[in-house]
Amino acid sequence: AEQALISAEVYERKALDHFYSAEFREAEELYKKAIALEPENPFYWNGLADSYLFQLLLAAGRLDSRFYSAANEFLDAKPAPPDAAILKSMWEALTRARRLAEARTRANANDAGAFYALAVSHAIEAHFHLNLARKPLNALHDAGTARDAARRARQLNPQNSDANLILGGYEFAIGSVPMAFRWLLALGGHSGSKARGVELGQDAMMHGKRASTAALALLAVAY
User: Fold this and answer.
1) Number of C-beta neighbours around residue 213 at 10 A
2) Which residue, 37, 58, 129, 163, shows the most beta carbons closer than 10 Å to its own?
3) Cβ atoms < 10 Å from Cβ of 165
4) pLDDT score at 6
């Protein structure tokens, strides 16, 4: 069992190497190998879902940095319809990750890792709704749920800097909304600061275990 756990972790590290090299299909295959060894681990299912999501984003041309300028062009451009088979696989993996994480939180309300896994699953869904489905209200709902789960993870384990990637992304996104609309978000319980988002992203980059590279990418967009 211990050897299987080590092997699964190795597959995850290799998957992340491929993922951050934009080799999303290779990452997909490695996450599948990790899942085969440890099928009850929600992090591997989240990773698999994310690899599918980024295959869809790449195919739709949504990974071009020009979309994420101060002009927010990504909100205007219409992406191509996503591949139905990949989209189905993404939802299946995301659903499995969330069910596993939720089962762990029900079994143990102090399971910081489970709350973080739950936060990641909602963050992935928020990313999908904003960048592919173009449903900002759905994205806002999932982002708020991800924020709450990440906050709980940090409360239970203050050393979990990975959760600050989600908290920082949320803060920066809400803080970037024009002031004319921000008060409407505040009425719905959503508030954020760009400066605070950068601060949290820096902590995730410097001290995170799973999220350090993703935090670096977030900071690049922020700067």
Assistant:
1) 16
2) 163
3) 28
4) 58
